[in-house]
Amino acid sequence: MTFHSNDAWWWPFVFILVAGWLATDAWRYLGVYLGGRIRDDSEVLVLVRAIATALVAAVIGNLILFPSGELASTPVALRIEAEIAGFAAYQLARKTVVVGIIVAEAILLAGLYAL
Amino acid sequence: MEALNEAQDEPSFRWYLRGARAAYSIPGFILMSSFVGFSALAKAADVGLWATVFMTGIVWALPAQVVLVGAVIAGNSLGAAALAVALSSVRLTPMVVAIVPELRGPRTRGITLYFLSHFVAVTSWVLAMAKLPDVPASRRTAFYFGLGSTLTLTNMIVVGCVYVLVDALPRELSAALFMLTPMYFLTSLWGSAREWATNLAMVFGIVLGPVCHVLVPSFDLLIAGFAGGIGAYVIYRLAHRRRSA
């Protein structure tokens, strides 16, 4: 029952509906239902936000250390350097996302073309 | 006051168009560039063209989509993939809880809110929370429908085009595409944190993710998320208790 275990044309769409649509829109519908009932500064939400953020951060870490596609053939030290430099630039630019992305990409590309 | 009354009288369609135009902004373009990276990732995982476009429209949450493609790459079963995606998407609930009072006008029906909630994701949420206060209450659903549907449709097109074109790119540029997603998440998540418990959870998660990936590959995201999140929350609470004591 994995994504590639069934050759039928419809199987990927069923997989995406169950593991993708159901697993995300259920939370959105719950949010509409609860809207107004939970206070946005409630204590439970601090814990919920922390767990959700750590989970996505784990994805970020994996995408840098164990990337896929062409990024996998680049040196790991270069990827980490680019990420840290990008984040530092983002902080220096008073949390401007686009500055962080441009600096990280510039360092990665400079490193790749210098190799 | 007169200007406000005039705005109230304007047809909903005009506010739909204003919402659509708000999608073409700096956050909107950054999101597009990270969907470029996502499309390359989905193709590398051998998710088909139409499945990738379909996923973008029906899931419409980039972290969830990246987790889903990660589960495809890892060869996870349907159940394990659904669980990982569900856990990565819990944050959608508090986001929707926060936006519902902003969207709800005097005569908004429940079904409209359920429908519009599908468009809630980091970028549309950030844009909407910033712009909705300037929209008359009775036109907010129209405005958000314009914003959300435009972002979604535009990125479905972007994802489809990139999927077809990505192989024609030089290797270095292709590598750079895969860097867009983690960098966008890293900075936008950090910036959206409300209390430092979230920032600490990010630091824990980014370290624990790869560690768990090596130690417990099938449950890496779940364990890193729970351990990192709960750990950060406990430290945050203890620090606050000490300060207030």
Layout of secondary structure:
The complex is a heterodimer of chains A (115) and B (245).
Chain A: H1 11-34, H2 43-65, H3 76-92, H4 97-114
Helix pairs in contact in A: 3-4
Chain B: H1 2-9, H2 12-22, H3 26-44, H4 49-59, H5 62-74, H6 78-88, H7 92-103, H8 110-117, H9 122-131, H10 140-165, H11 171-192, H12 196-215, H13 220-244
Helix pairs in contact in B: 2-10, 3-5, 3-10, 3-11, 4-10, 5-6, 12-13
Give short descriptive properties of this protein.
heterodimer, A: 115 residues, mainly alpha, 3 domains, 4 helices, flat, B: 245 residues, 2 domains, 13 helices, 80% helix, 0% strand, transmembrane (chain A), AzlD domain-containing protein (chain A), transmembrane helix (chain A), Brnchd-chn_aa_trnsp_AzlD (chain A), membrane (chain A)
Please give the share of residues in helix of chain B.
Answer: over 70%
Run of helices and strands of chain A: HHHH
Query: What does the largest sheet of chain A look like?
Result: none
How widely separated are the two ends of chain B?
49 Å
Biggest β-sheet strands, sense, barrel of chain B? none
Please describe what this structure looks like.
The complex is a heterodimer of chains A (115) and B (245). The termini of chain A are far apart. In chain A, helix 3 packs antiparallel against helix 4. The model of chain A has no long low-confidence stretch (mean pLDDT 90). Chain A has three domains: 37 residues, no CATH class; 29 residues; 42 residues. Chain A is flat, with a radius of gyration of 20 Å. Chain A has four helices and no strands. With 115 residues, chain A is an all-alpha fold. Chain B has 245 residues and is mainly alpha-helical. Chain B has two domains: 186 residues, no CATH class; 53 residues. Chain B is built from 13 helices and no strands. The longest helix of chain B has 26 residues. Chain B is globular. Chains A and B meet through helix 1, helix 2, helix 3 and helix 4 of A and helix 3, helix 4, helix 5, helix 6 and helix 7 of B.
